[in-house]
Amino acid sequence: LIKDFQHFVDLGLGDGIDEQTNPLDINLFSMTGNRWRYMRNKLSPLFTTGKLRHMVPQMKNLGDRLVQVLEENQSQVDLKDMFQRYAMDVIASIAFGMNVNILQETEESEFRKIGKKSFRFTLKQYLRFIFITVFPKLAKMMRVPLNDPEVNEYFSRIIREALSHRKQSGMSRNDFVQLFVTLQQKGSIAFEGDDQDDKYLKSEDDMKPQKKMANYELTDAAMIGHAFVFLVAGFDSTSITMMYLCYELALNPEIQKKAREEIVKAYKNRGVLDYDTLRDAPYYGQCVQEVMRLHTIIGFLSRVCTKDYTFPGTSLSIKAGQAVLIPTIGIHQDPAYYENPDKFDPDRFAPDVSRRNCSFLAFGDGPRVCIAMRFAMTEIKLCVARLLLDYSISLHPKTKLPLEMDSNHFADVPNGPVYFTLTKMGDAL
């Protein structure tokens, strides 16, 4: 992932994707080699601390709307459903510039229905995934889509419309659509400031393109797949992590009390719930990291060997073209790295506790680390922090333990509703 990155640059999907018919499938996850390097360098500045600060107020406004909706029924709340609604509203607003108000809809909108469909890992979708990875050249020749054709058509259309409307109207917003338009018009976006948290975004020598990508223009079509990735990153995995965070805080009331007190103190010191307020709550941040370890949403990382590799001091080698799977969930549950791995213990991530390199892989690591990880972390932290300012969280008796997992889902997601009880606390706001 890091030291020998040049031998394992690619993730293993790009060779089997036809970008002309399946534009959603062309993104940083599927791009390979020099093309990936080029686009990562172009897109990284979209996720700096400065850009996130501009987006947090909209997350906060939607968090306020979530609390208003929850006021109507605090005794039995399906937070799995409510967090999915919140996450979809956030990504619709910040990625696509749309106000869909899924939090308050009574009938499922097309945006939500098709968004959810993109994460349902049906047998047909599983077979498509296997076919693309095992027979990439044949899959590309046959134009086999990685995503469902209905998902491809719908999100391709709304992303094109969002980009077109923004250019024609001349309006400006703090969202990804605006950043895409700026990137197209200027060719690049400069980093803002010199925040330490932005170090993972900045180019290292091994990520700089070796030659100019003369045939790869920043057209609307080229932006569609990247915009869709923000839907993927910002919807399902983040909403489920929010639910698991509330689940563990409910099972561990002393930890919940400590996290809530820290959030309330940070909020009162700053007078606002914003990016820096979350920074001032480090123990709460440890709770989020520990949830991501204990409830690993995606169980593995994939890499393809791009240059023959021999393990130092051995004759064991991996040939170029061979696939490698990294068992994220196995590493996160390994007692060699985490003592009592089944226990929820935020102190594992305290600043003075050392961990082995690559023992926490919720977002991957190295140059291929998810560049949107702080966007996702900020969304998770802000939403649940907004709840904790108003409520104590406990499990409702209808929630049966252990949680039953949904076998038709790509990620580790509970099957059916997960009910909680919210108890009003002192008004911190």
UniProtKB/TrEMBL annotation:
Keywords: Endoplasmic reticulum, Heme, Iron, Membrane, Metal-binding, Microsome, Monooxygenase, Oxidoreductase. Gene3D superfamilies: Cytochrome P450. Its cofactor is heme. GO terms for cellular component: endoplasmic reticulum membrane. Heme binds at C370. Its main location: endoplasmic reticulum. Pfam families: p450. InterPro entries: Cyt_P450, Cyt_P450_CS, Cyt_P450_E_grp-I, Cyt_P450_sf, Insect_CytP450_Detox. It is a peripheral membrane protein. PROSITE patterns: CYTOCHROME_P450. It comes from the Eukaryota. GO terms for molecular function: heme binding; iron ion binding; monooxygenase activity; oxidoreductase activity, acting on paired donors, with incorporation or reduction of molecular oxygen. It is found in: Endoplasmic reticulum membrane; Microsome membrane. The keyword Transport does not apply. Belongs to the cytochrome P450 family. This is Putative cytochrome P450 6a13. It comes from Lygus hesperus. The lineage of its organism: Eukaryota, Metazoa, Ecdysozoa, Arthropoda, Hexapoda. The gene is Cyp6a13_3.
